[in-house]
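Lab notebook: predicted structure, single chain.

Context: the supervisor wants predicted structures on file for every construct in the current expression panel, including those that have not yet been purified. This is the next one on the list. No modifications to the sequence; it matches the entry in the shared construct table.
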Amino acid sequence: MTRRTVRIAMNGVTGRMGHRQHLVRSILALREQGGLDLGNGETLWPEPVLVGRREPALRALAEHHGLTEWSTDLDAVLADGTVDVYFDAQVTPARADAIRRAVAAGKHVYTEKPTAGDLAEALDLARLATEKGIKHGVVQDKLFLPGLRKLKRLIDGGFFGEILSVRGEFGYWVFEGDWQEAQRPSWNYRAEDGGGIVVDMFPHWEYVLHELFGRVTSVSAHVATHVPRRWDEHGKPYEATAEDAAYGVFELEGGAVAQINSSWTVRVHRDELVEFQVDGTHGSAVAGLRGCRVQHRSATPKPVWNPDIPVTESFRDQWQEIPDNADFDNGFKAQWELFLRHVVLDEPYHWDLLAGARGVQLAELGLRSAAEGRRLEVPELTG
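Prediction complete. Output recorded below exactly as produced.
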């Protein structure tokens, strides 16, 4: 078995998502399984080079995972001809500049979303990467969740007939930080630092809707800062300047309508932290992170509205669970594998910086829709 090493500069892995999902559950998990089998007796071996601003945190992270390469000098890492790929999981305001420098250095780029602070910059990054001739990809992890993969299987099999509507519920209660520690960093609630649930979640909803149901053609959104005062990581109070909840209606190409609520100020009364209900002429489904339940029209009960008598049946029990029928790996790791195969084998891969720009566009238009109190068209972006 021949080993082919790919060196990956990983910037921002001292943060929550960069550390847990990208470093530990993706790159290190690939190493633990012996590398990525490329076929024909060849194995890809990912070699991470940790990059960040805080030297003590980088050193501690590297030592904890038995890694030897780390640096606080991004330019020096990008100048290293042995580094093949640049990965970015920094805070949003720092991302575009770093990607631009990586593209200029000729590195393949894989990045978290949103790719930039505004659409013009996101499109410029996509243009620069294409002109440079590098491979580029954007994390679109929700597509690889077991629940949504089951949902995609139903769509491809024609289960729904004509899809009429999609209803999504995402969120949970994020503690204010005074009497219990918050589960999210304080910058998430400061607009000046790139925070806000629209910038965080609308890019997700764009690719989920686009890939599964059709391109988003219009958006109407309402946003709110339900909890205006929070406490940061040092216990200091601060005023929240970014929205913590967003309520969006999206019209889709083909006529279906999607309504998705996103909130960090909601207590969960669902089976999973995110759920999508899809209703069609032939059947309906409810998909979450892992599970997916269906109700076909042939098994749909005939409820009658009568508030004067108690409900005697469990509506949830009338749905059928979809079996796994496959082994589902971590969604972040699954997409990393596809991107690395794209880099070394030139296999097809379409979740690129232009796809990332569509997410930035929807977030930008969502915020504008909320500010202006009106529905906005979403122009189609083409490469």
